[in-house]
Amino acid sequence: MSDRADASPRGIDPRGPRFAAGITAVLLLIVVFLGLTGLSTAQTAEGWAVSAASVAQRFLDPAFLLLLATTLLFLWGVVSPRTAPWGALYRTVVAPRLSAPSELEDPRPPRFAQGVGLFVSALGLALQLFGMPWALTIAAAAASIAAFLNAVFGLCLGCQLYLLLQRAGIVGRARPASA
């Protein structure tokens, strides 16, 4: 979620978060596929397979493990966006091949969006551990759609939520007009 201008007080290159969202969307789409073909959505003669499975079996489900890895990447993006893997990859491999961005954006909304992704994916993980059918797959699908919209169309749903909450005075302070 970060880019080469991350340390600048003026803002970040908006292409960095979009690059990270593209990779994240692909990872989450794989989680959705694994969830649709795995423990989360399977049924047995007794009912849902995930409800009958032990906590260890739920944890070792491939969809769970990949969503766990993605959730940890979201956490990394929230805690230290400068060192997050997709941002570092963008800064070192992609950004040097591009022209300078025409404008920079406030880093707070993309960071908040990472937190929203963290919340959604962690909720899916928790519900999977509690044996809730479809929860992991639905959470991964929702996060994948949001990441896809950001990567392809530049529509960051988490950023829009941040701006809405900022206008309501719930998060952040308005940036000075001169920034």
TrEMBL record:
TM region(s), chain numbering: 20-39, 59-79, 112-132, 138-165
Pfam families (UniProt xref): DUF4395 (PF14340)
InterPro entries reported for this sequence: DUF4395
Keywords: Membrane, Transmembrane, Transmembrane helix
The name this protein goes by in its record: DUF4395 domain-containing protein
Coiled-coil regions listed in the entry: none
Superkingdom: Bacteria
Transmembrane among keywords: yes
Domain DUF4395, residue spans: 12-167
